[in-house]
Amino acid sequence: MAAAAVSEAWPELELAERERRRELLLTGPGLEERVRAAGGQLPPRLFTLPLLHYLEVSGCGSLRAPGPGLAQGLPQLHSLVLRRNALGPGLSPELGPLPALRVLDLSGNALEALPPGQGLGPAEPPGFPQLQSLNLSGNRLRELPADLARCAPRLQSLNLTGNCLDSFPAELFRPGALPLLSELAAADNCLRELSPDIAHLASLKTLDLSNNQLSEIPAELADCPKLKEINFRGNKLRDKRLEKMVSGCQTRSILEYLRVGGRGGGKGKGRAEGSEKEDSRKKRRERKQRREGGDGEEQDVGDAGRLLLRVLHVSENPAPLTVRVSPEVRDVRPYIVGAVVRGMDLQPGNALKRFLTSQTKLHEDLCEKRTAATLATHELRAVKGPLLYCARPPQDLKIVPLGRKEAKAKELVRQLQLEAEEQRKQKKRQSVSGLHRYLHLLDGNENYPCLVDADGDVISFPPITNSEKTKVKKTTSDLFLEVTSATSLQICKDVMDALILKMAEMNKYTLENKEEGSLSDTEADAVSGQLSDPRTNPSAGKDGPSPLVVEQVRVVDLEGSLKVVYPSKADLATAPPHVTVVR
Q1: DSSP 410-460
Q2: Residue pLDDT, tens place only, 459-491
Q3: Is pLDDT of 305 > 90?
Q4: Beta bridge partners of 310
Q5: Each residue of 504-561: pLDDT tens digit?
Q6: DSSP 76-103
Q7: For the structural domain made of 308-393+449-512+546-581, what CATH number should be given?
Q8: What is the pLDDT of residues 43-91, one digit of tens each?
């Protein structure tokens, strides 16, 4: 009788066992009630599926602890995703050891500390000897376990964004502790200092410590041999020149400033020898230029190859686009930024395909598979402002999704769920593709976010889809861009920066590589009812660089008070050398 009750309550487990599945996703509206009935833990039956390689349980506000038996019952687990639950304040019992685990995502929970016995796993021997990616963002951690490096010695990516950390444990930066760590993100914490020993992270490529309480940056940071990207914005540095640089300069310039003696913090062992190294490099560059008869890499990017981004301020725009925000989005997806970009050329060859592919890549990488943020692009001519960003019950939200017929959000989500289940049956695996991968992001929401135009039409339903009404085509040259997030305003701005700079790169590529228009170009023009015209095609009849115009978009509340304007002076500050931003 008890076994039958468990099967009835957890049919996914019975199915996974019967079909010997290696992947399992538990999510959806009914999950919270079932976990509550199980005492706030996962059912013990789950830990009798030893073939599982991937397990995800997300969006469950009643899940306070995984429960005993996970480590013993799932020895082959490669990926464990327990995000947006209620895990905390610690983990009892601890998760490990999980000898095969490579990805661990505990983001968006209520973890406050991970002490021995209530944390990740043992340090001797390592509880996670193969772990490569650890995501602890969006918790309430006040400190990290001192033995983290010994517990996961092969860690490559560590995300600590959005916690309450005021320091890193010294053991994290001891020589040889984390030889493979390439990404460290700890933005939006309370960090007060950064140890010079960070130079011992020999593989570090990306460091994000924005929006903390740092007053100094150690000069030793410049000794990290592979460091390519740093972000210290939002820290009040004592060195005001350095503070200005971190807001507007490229990583290379900041590291050179630290290396040659900038007042980045402390005396720094690398200053004198760093200055000598820089002089030596400069002489080598000069000798190489004389041999090649050139003027150096930066001079190679001449005016003909340089692309301009001109920012049009609201005060200069006779008809600026505005987004009004309703208060109900605060509990659903509170952050949004918008921008208008004019002068994009998507007609030649595969330009449109490259543009769409770049959005997909941003969603996968910077947007963290749409969990951190979601971007959308629209044909500006089809957008009727002012826009309203609001939240509506699923049964009241109507949209014509891309490539589909008009549907209410409730019906659309149900249809996608059925399609996802059909995918699983056909492929005999738990993972799905396309929009189906993002359905779990709506779990637990009574209202869904949407962007509505002045005609009352929903043009965007983040994080799921856009409207067919504003679909971008090959003939599109002017676009409205929006980025939304449930996480932070800064990630919206970062994604928007990346998208616009990528658009500039693409326009430069299109300019320099004269692609032949294919048959599909003509077909696309005919379908949209517009044939190629020099007045609507930015590249037609032009030999020089084609500037993109970025128009500011204001986001205001319903009373008209300004919430954010993009791009502000602090945005688009890290443009590549061949892109000039004119404000």
Answers
A1: HHHHHHHHHHHHHHHHHHTSS---GGGGGGGGGTT-SSEEEEE-TTS-EEE
A2: 999 988 899 999 999 999 999 999 999 888 889
A3: no
A4: 549, 582
A5: 888 877 777 765 544 344 333 333 333 233 333 444 344 445 578 999 999 999 888 8
A6: T--EEE--SS---SS-SS-----TT--E
A7: 3.50.40.10
A8: 999 999 988 888 889 889 899 999 888 889 998 999 999 988 999 898 8
Residue 93 has which token pair? 């019992």
CA dihedral 286→288→291→296, nearest 10 degrees, is -70
Architecture label for domain 12-260: Alpha-Beta Horseshoe (3.80)
Residues 6+ apart with CB under 8 A from 101: 77, 78, 79, 80, 128, 130, 131
In three-state secondary structure terms, 229 is strand
What DSSP letter does each residue of 482-529 carry, written as one string?
A: EEEESS-HHHHHHHHHHHHHHHHHHHHHHHHS-PPP-HHHHHHHHHHT
Start-end of CATH 3.50.40.10 domains in the chain: 308-393+449-512+546-581
Q: Decide: residue 31, CB within 10 A, 0-12 exposed, 13-18 middle, 19+ buried.
A: buried
Question: Average pLDDT for residues 105-132, to the nearest whole number?
Answer: 89
Tokens 């349980």 -> residue: 57
Percent of the chain with pLDDT over 90: 44
Rg, C-alpha atoms of the chain? 26
- In the chain, DSSP finds a helix count (H) and a strand count (E) of 13, 23
Residues whose CB falls within 8 Å of the CB of residue 364, separated by 6 or more in sequence, listed in order: none
User: What whole-number distance in Å separates Cα of residue 216 and Cα of residue 212?
Assistant: 11
**Ranges of CATH 3.80.10.10 domains, the chain:** 12-260
b/e per residue 391-421 (b: at least 16 CB within 10 A): bbebeebbbbbeeeeebbbeebbeebeeebe
Q: Which residues contact 310 (CB under 8 A, 6 or more apart)?
A: 547, 548, 549, 550, 582
pLDDT digits (tens, 9 = 90+) for 409-467: 888 888 888 887 777 677 655 554 555 556 667 777 788 999 999 999 999 999 888 99
127 touches 103 (CB < 8 A): no
Tally of residues, the chain = 583
Q: 382 vs 249, 424, 469, 470, CA distance in Å?
A: 37, 37, 7, 5
pTM over 0.85: no
What is the pLDDT at residue 438?
A: 64
Q: Which residues contact 147 (CB under 8 A, 6 or more apart)?
A: 116, 123, 171
